[in-house]
Design the sequence.
């Protein structure tokens, strides 16, 4: 080999090596994979099923996450964890974003940044059909169940009522069905799903007691590069009706089951 060719070959080899190195660990943390964290205990937004849109993960949020990744030429990955652990995992860099029907609260905004709102919900009360609860203040002398770390828990706390917190919505609803508690405070669309799945339950709303809540995707504070990509996709999915269609699709599935 001529000297010039040797130098060229070496230079090429080094460029290729550098490419491999960046693909593995440089620049963006996991190369072309966009890793979301979720807690798949929250139908119709995220739940586990035999064949979901991302492996076993299915729901409105899962379809949104998949489209965000695809539109940005990335592969989507989903990590399942406790709801309480999601923002910690995000801050640690274990995941790139959180999509979990998560309400963008002022408290959470102190530690993470949120995308454009993609869904508006509210807390509601699930009660047994024969319940005399008609408004939030009727909960005062009742046994209240909430899910740990959800905004529903914060609401009940702020109202000054005592309550019992469960790890999963289904556990709280089971207590209600079994007569061990009188009311479950949880997000509206998820409540609809639980009422559809269980006999003898109904939903009581109280707009004067529960404010509307905006679901958004969380990223690490200051990660504007990712946030811009997420926002561009979310805004597109909002304006072209994709999110609406997903909401209808997964809500119908929820009540048809
Ligand atoms: N919207 C409520 C909150 O932000 C409940 C969200 C629960 N989500 C879940 N994937 N388990 O606290």
Sequence:
């Amino acid at each position: 080999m001529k000297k010039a060719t040797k130098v060229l070959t070496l230079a090429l080899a080094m460029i290729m090596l550098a490419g491999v190195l960046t693909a593995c660990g440089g620049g963006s943390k996991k190369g072309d994979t966009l890793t979301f964290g979720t807690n798949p205990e929250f139908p119709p937004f995220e739940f586990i099923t035999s064949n979901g849109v991302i492996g076993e993960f299915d729901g409105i949020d899962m379809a949104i996450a998949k489209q965000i990744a695809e539109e940005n030429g990335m592969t989507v990955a989903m990590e399942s964890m406790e709801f309480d652990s999601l923002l910690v995992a995000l801050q640690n860099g274990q995941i790139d974003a959180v999509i979990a029907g998560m309400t963008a609260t002022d408290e959470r905004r102190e530690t993470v940044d949120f995308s454009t709102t993609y869904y508006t919900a509210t807390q509601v009360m699930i009660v047994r059909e024969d319940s005399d609860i008609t408004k939030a203040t009727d909960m005062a002398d009742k046994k209240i169940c909430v899910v740990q770390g959800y905004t529903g828990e914060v609401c009940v706390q702020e109202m000054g009522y005592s309550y019992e917190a469960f790890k999963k919505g289904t556990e709280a609803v089971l207590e209600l069905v079994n007569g061990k508690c009188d009311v479950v405070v949880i997000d509206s669309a998820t409540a609809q799903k639980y009422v559809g799945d269980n006999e003898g339950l109904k939903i009581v709303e109280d707009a004067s007691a529960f404010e509307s809540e905006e679901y958004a995707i969380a990223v690490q504070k200051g990660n504007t590069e990712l946030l811009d990509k997420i926002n561009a996709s979310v805004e597109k999915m909002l304006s072209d009706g994709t999110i609406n269609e997903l909401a209808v699709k997964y809500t119908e599935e929820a009540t048809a089951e």
Notes: Residues 3-24 form the longest helix (22 residues).
